[in-house]
Amino acid sequence: MDAKTCQSFSAECPSRELFDQIAGKWSMMVLTVLDAGPMRFNAIKRHLEGITQKALTDCLRRLERNGLVERRVIPASPVGVEYEITALGRTLQPPFKALYAWTMEKMPDVEAARRNFDHRSGT
């Protein structure tokens, strides 16, 4: 495929749903947090300022369903649950790290573009 070929995303394409789930608001951050090793729910939540319990629960369920995170019950008193990134989930780390590096490198350019836009639009 050459650089001028336009990608299209059919509504029926299964990759579209998976892409939406991986690129969702919290998914990349949860997988990045879990890169450090297994964590309990509240430990994950502490690393993600602003996430609600429901949003984290929903995100972890989607990631588990897609095989990117494993949920493990810890037989203790009281019973605990921890989450760990799977081997499949780890394959996302290189592109996530590259995307993060891009955001850090390009943030000055993005901020300049925002200021330019705001100035032009009067906001």
Question: What labels describe this entry?
Answer:
about 120 residues; mainly alpha; 3-stranded antiparallel sheet; about 10% strand
Question: Can you describe this structure?
Answer:
It is built from 6 helices and 3 strands. The protein has helices at 14-22, 27-34, 41-47, 53-65, 87-90, 93-121; strands at 39-40, 69-74, 80-85. The chain has a 3-stranded antiparallel sheet. The chain is globular and about 60 Å long. The termini are far apart.
- Which series of helices and strands comes N to C? HHEHHEEHH
> What spatial order of strands do you see in the largest sheet?
1-3-2
Q: Tell how many strands the DSSP assignment holds.
A: 3
Count of helical stretches: 6
Using only C-alpha atoms, the radius of gyration works out to: 18 Å
Briefly say what this structure is:
The chain has 123 residues and is mainly alpha-helical. It has helices at 14-22, 27-34, 41-47, 53-65, 87-90, 93-121, and strands at residues 39-40, 69-74, 80-85.
